[in-house]
Amino acid sequence: MVFARRSHRPLTLRIKEFVWPSSGFKRAFAYLAKRVTSLKASPHSIAAGFASGAAASCFPLIGLHFLLSFGLAWCLRGSMVAAALGTAVGNPLTFPILFAAAYRVGAIIRGEEAANAGAVDQAGSELAAEEIFSGSLEHAWPLFTTTMIGATPIALATFAAFYLLVRWSAAKVQATRRERLASRALRGCSA
């Protein structure tokens, strides 16, 4: 590789950088936005791919987000690279917020009482590790299904928001790039 590191960073440092970037979140998000908008594809393809990844991250199916985003991007003729980058919306900092919101929305959709909708913290703390991993889904299944039901409208709203934002950004970046290349070509012809 041309730009490979001379000394490889240890796994623990790479994980730490993934969770809490030393360059700062603002720079990490700016880098991600630059990578997404500079992809060589149509604005629709980039936007559909990124929005697919972001929407897939709303579901409590950790480990399957890439597969979900690739499947959705394929159905919508979106960019697979953009879909992979879009899954960065779901990360260790946003998962608790997304899943708690999904549970609350799911509880409202299922018609559960408002008091029960706020019980996600209590239910999560009451589930002992032995119950979860023993194969008994008696307590975990209702929590999971409610969260899946609530994640669907959140994923749809997330898809719409990111699709519009990324499509507009990608179209703007590509138009600027075309103008810059055209002006360079004109300067080259006149010289």
From TrEMBL:
Domain of life assignment: Bacteria
Domain DUF2062: 27-177
Signal sequence segment: none
Membrane-crossing segments per the record: 46-68, 80-103, 143-166
Pfam families: DUF2062 (PF09835)
Keywords: Membrane, Transmembrane, Transmembrane helix
PANTHER family: SLL0298 PROTEIN
Protein name: DUF2062 domain-containing protein
